[in-house]
Amino acid sequence: MRDIEEDIKILLAKPTETIEEHTKKVMEQCEKLKEYNYISKEIYDNLKLACKYHDYGKVNEEFQKRVTATKKILFNPELEPGHNLISPFFINKDEFEGRDEDYNKVFYAVLNHHSHVNNFQELEERKEFIKSFVSNYKLNKITNKKIFNMKKNINIEYEVLTGLLNKCDYSGSGNYSIEYENDFLIKSLNNLKFQWNELQEFLLNNKNENVMVVANTGMGKTEGGLLWIGDNKGFFILPLKTAINSIYLRVKDNILKENIEKRLGLLHSESFNFLLNNLKEFSYEDIRNYNKEGKALSMPITITTLDQIFNFIFLYPGYEMKLGTLSYSKIVLDEIQAYSPDLLAYIAIGLKKIVKAGGKFAILTATLPPFIRDYLMDELKEIGNIKYEKFIKGDDRHNIRVLDEEISPEIIYDHYMKKGKKTLVICNTVKKSQEMYVALKEMGIESLEIELLHSKFIRKDRMEKEKNILKFGDTTNKGNKIWISTSLVEASLDIDFDYLFTELNDLSGLFQRLGRVNRKGQKKEFLNEVNTYVFTKINKKLFINGNSGFIDEDIFNLSKKAISSAEGILSEEKKYYLIEKNLTSENIKDSNFNRTYREYKKYMESIWIGRFSKVETCKKFRNIISYKVIPLNIYEDNKVKIEEYIEIINDLKFSEEERVKAKDSLDQFTLQVGIYDMPKKSKVIRVNREEINILDGNYSFELGFQRKKQEEEKKQEEAVDNFL
């Protein structure tokens, strides 16, 4: 019989690394988790053994043929068992000293650290086939009864250990740090020399609790959330990339200031492009490695979107690594009311699993409808106490007028001509915002005094406009200008205008929009007159009806009734009680929103491990069919550059840096549109594995993209994909 301990010193795990060498690197990552106090002694002991045994199966002859071959030989699970199926036969049960449950956890983790096949089924049905590949070693006995009993007792601790093993394995293989220590955040916050307010003190004093907090806009929820995370691993989750990028830069430049590459991560679908364009002091290689470690969840603090973290609930192959990371993390969810019912169902299920795994959460929001609070409390009732607190006292900020009519460019024009100042107009759809812009321009508003922002600008134009609105909207900035936008600006964006004209969507969204006006409550002079105009008539096609529309009619009508009784000075306390009184579980029980939430929650509770691939998970989580396009006139005006970028991207003779930068340059001309904007036919260019449609329509820096009107085609004017 061969000696396994001797063979792992000479046989390979990687083309240039023995099994023993690789295992040592994986064990070093395990030690970091212990050093940073991220895992308990019990988990550490089990993880150490899982790391030790996870690649023993690579001693088999077929694996060694593949790893030493000069020409790549593909793995075929029909002809050769994965090494993860072989490794459990080497686990020495004596090392567990009678701790059968710990042995089972390690067995499970080692078996499932890869998912090429149904591992348990393969082990039960092809046991002799698997063993035949290492028949010249002493193997431990694994009976089908043992497998059956183990499967029956699997719990979240098994999943967490599997995830931690994968995290150690991936970082050891990828030669990056599994984690960086958070020994800086509290010190960095204290260096601000701020006097913490009651919200921030509450979060600081309850940093070991799961909390749910309602607090006025402008109270410093970002700093409060960071105080709650403290010197621990944390994720700060927001609904919109615009706000995420803004908060990332604020934390980077104003709070942490140094060693960002080991302290702060940015994670969303366009984060690499954003980092390339904003970290000018970093080399390409530095940004590449920084982004890689951010995607591997190695950063102590990560600012991110929901889909990057909560997609683990779909149980795709390898989901355990994310769950394992969250088991020692603190999660801040900002502006939870901004999410659709399907995403709220994912949040409720995800938070329950995170807390069971060992993580903690803080929900921080300016508005929290009672029915959403009930959704969460109902799902989380078995996890123990959740501290709920509200911070709704504060200076009055808004003097509102409610108009039972559609949003009016005439009213906005007359007001601006008399008052000027920083004026914000928020519409429910891109189309309506474009109409407002055109109407106000035609009435005589000069180009320098009006600007438009929504989701249908090409990337380079949108980035410029986002920077412009943040600069103009700064509290300290004075000026005269009308900015027109959509719900893109309503959540977590630190802008402060003097006057607001807005369509009604729902009460929570409305109060979020109000938070962009007199944000700090310091503009007392604006309270002597109306500073907020709410228009409560909207296009009925926006109400959800089958697959069209995006506004829940029941919630809209409740909101309209509530706000219509609230003209005049609207205090922070009154906002809170309007939501408490009107948006109750009882009042919305027959709404489309509630039905959708219940359907998604029931569906998610029925899925099983491996039901979806990771690619399918991404599509299902975002639940939006979108297409990357270049407007035809932009394509024609920049055809030479675009074709040059495509040539570089598709030609492997160029370096990775050159190809990535060409891809980023090409993406500056693109935008995402929904299915209703797509014609039956359009020109398609293929860039590597991606398709980009050249879309005939009207595009300008002023208005963004407008689809081409076709006499013969009757297209729905407003649709679910048209609201940002």
TrEMBL record:
Domain named Helicase ATP-binding: residues: 202-386
InterPro entries membership: Cas3-like_dom (IPR054712), CRISPR-assoc_Cas3_HD (IPR006483), CRISPR-assoc_Cas3_HD_sf (IPR038257), DEAD/DEAH_box_helicase_dom (IPR011545), DEAD_box_RNA_helicase (IPR050079), Helicase_ATP-bd (IPR014001), Helicase_C-like (IPR001650), Helicase_Cas3_CRISPR-ass_core (IPR006474)
Pfam family membership, one: Cas3-like_C_2
Record-level GO cellular component terms: cytosol
PROSITE patterns in UniProt: HD_CAS3 (PS51643), HELICASE_ATP_BIND_1 (PS51192), HELICASE_CTER (PS51194)
Entry-linked Gene3D superfamilies: 1.10.3210.30, P-loop containing nucleotide triphosphate hydrolases
GO biological process: defense response to virus
Keywords (A to Z) from UniProt: Antiviral defense, ATP-binding, Endonuclease, Helicase, Hydrolase, Metal-binding, Nuclease, Nucleotide-binding
Stretches assigned to the Helicase C-terminal domain: 411-584
Domain HD Cas3-type, chain residue ranges per copy: 12-171
SMART domains (UniProt xref): DEXDc (SM00487)
GO molecular function: ATP binding; endonuclease activity; hydrolase activity; metal ion binding; nucleic acid binding; RNA helicase activity
Family per similarity comment: In the central section; belongs to the CRISPR-associated helicase Cas3 family.
Name by which UniProt lists this protein: CRISPR-associated endonuclease/helicase Cas3
Species, as recorded: Cetobacterium ceti
